[in-house]
Amino acid sequence: MKNLLLNKKLLFPETSYLILRFSFGITMCYYHGWSKLLSDTSRWERLGNAVTQWIGLDALKIPLGFMAAFSESIGALLIAFGLLTRPAAFLLGITMLVASSKKLSEAGVDGSELPVLFLILSFVILLRGPGKYSLDCTLF
Question: Is the pTM of this model over 0.85?
Answer without folding.
Answer: yes
